[in-house]
Amino acid sequence: LWCTVFCTRTDLYTIPTSHGRELLADGWWGMSRHPNYLGDLMMGLAWCGTCGVNHIICYFYIIYFAILLVHRQRRDDLHCERKYGAAWQEYMQRVPYKIIPGFY
């Protein structure tokens, strides 16, 4: 039932590409280019938080993961810019935040 309601929406804003595909620029992907990375970071922070705040080593995972995801986001953006060209430029103008809406 959920998918029949939400998976068939036709009012989502998309940007057509020269490859015949569309870039979704609405919903979660209208707030951030990689909202799934934000979810990953939030989960990692929650896992680290269960160790308390007594030592920095408890937060090694989230620090490592943040560096990994920012590097991956930059590679993804370069790849998409080469692949989609002008459509990706329009997408970057419409969705300025890369991972964290309102911040980065």
Question: Which features would summarize this protein structure in a list?
Answer:
4 helices, mainly alpha, elongated, single chain, two-stranded antiparallel ribbon, 104 residues
Task: Note down, in words, how this protein is organized.
It is a single chain. By secondary structure, the protein is mainly α. It is 52% helix and 6% strand. The chain has helices spanning 2-6, 35-49, 60-84, 86-94; strands at residues 14-16, 22-24. A two-stranded antiparallel ribbon has the order 1-2. It is elongated, with a radius of gyration of 17 Å.
Q: What's the structural blueprint in terms of helices and strands?
A:
Elements lengths: L1 H5 L7 E3 L5 E3 L10 H15 L10 H25 L1 H9 L10
Antiparallel strand pairs: 1-2
Helix pairs in contact: 2-3, 3-4
The number of helical runs is: 4
Q: Looking across the biggest beta sheet, what order are the strands in? A: 1-2
Q: Could you give the count of β-strands?
A: 2
Cα-atom radius of gyration: 17 Å
Q: CA-to-CA gap between the ends?
A: 35 Å
Quick one: biggest sheet? 2 strands, antiparallel
